[in-house]
Amino acid sequence: MNRLRDVTDAATARSPELGPVLAEERSSEPVVVNAMTVDVEDYFQVSAFEGHISRDDWDRLPCRVERNVDRILGLFEEFGIQATFFTLGWVAQRYPRLVRRIVDHGHELASHGWSHVRVTELDADRFRDDLTRTQALLEDLGGRSINGYRAPSYSIGESNLWALQVLEETGHRYSSSIYPIRHDLYGMPSAPRFAFIPEGCESLLEVPVTTVQLGASKLPCGGGGYFRLFPYAYSKWALRRVNRQDRQPAVFYFHPWEIDPAQPVQSGIGLKTRVRHYLNLGRMEQRLRRLAADFPWTRMDRLFVRGAERTYADQA
Ligand SMILES: [Zn+2]
Question: What is the CA(206)–ligand 1 centre distance, in A?
Answer without folding.
Answer: 17
